[in-house]
C-alpha cells in the first residue's frame, strides 16, 4: 500500500543510531532530535530493504519453485503406481514413450483414475511453470545486470534473477567476502 502511494519505507539500524548519540542517557526527546538530525544531514543509517520490484520477482521465483516441487511429488506418485505394477520408469516417465507405457498398464479402476488425475495435474502445472518462466524471461530481458550474469557459465535465468534481486545494491557490501557471507 505504501508503495502504491509513492512512499519509501526506511528502517534504521538501531545499533549505529545509538552509537551516534552524544549522551548515554536515553529519552524520547533526545532520540527524536537525534533521528531528525541524522535525517537532515543525510546520515541516517538504514538497514537494506529490498525494492518492491525485487520483492515481486522473488515472489515469482518462489511460486515457480513451489510449482516444481508439486510437479515432482506428482511424478513420484506416478512412479509409485508404475512400481506397484512392476515397471521401473524413472526419468522415462517424462518422455512420450514412458507416458505411453504408463497408460498401457493394466490397473485397477482406482489406480487408473489416480493415474489420469496425476497426469492432468502435471500437465496443468507444467503449463503454469512455463507461463511463470515466460514472465521471468521478460523481466530478465529488460535488466542488463541479469543479462551480464547470464553470460557466466552455469548461471541461467533463475539464478541470475535471484542474485540480482537478492544482493542489490551490491555497494552495501564492503568486499566480496561480505557478499559470500
Fold blueprint:
Elements: E1 11-12, H1 14-20, H2 28-40, E2 46-47, H3 52-84, H4 96-104, H5 109-141, H6 144-150, H7 157-167, H8 176-180
Antiparallel strand pairs: 1-2
Summed over residues and divided by their number, the pLDDT gives a mean of 87
Catalogue the unreliable spans.
none
Distance between the first and last residues' Cα: 32 Å
Which class best fits the helix and strand makeup? mainly alpha
**Multimeric state:** single chain
Q: So what's the overall shape?
A: elongated
Order of helices and strands: EHHEHHHHHH
Query: What amount of the residues lies in strands?
Result: under 5%
- DSSP helical segment count: 8
Query: In percent, how helical is the residue content?
Result: 55-70%
Radius of gyration: 26 Å
| Main sheet overview | 2 strands, antiparallel
Number of strands: 2
Strand arrangement across the biggest beta sheet? 1-2
Polypeptide structure, described:
The relative contact order is 0.09. The chain has 8 helices and 2 strands. Strands 1-2 form a two-stranded antiparallel sheet. Helix 3 (52-84) runs antiparallel to helix 5, helix 3 runs antiparallel to helix 7 (157-167) and helix 6 packs across helix 7 (157-167). It is an all-alpha fold and 181 residues long. The longest helix is centred in the middle third of the chain and has 33 residues, at 52-84. The model has no long low-confidence stretch (mean pLDDT 87).
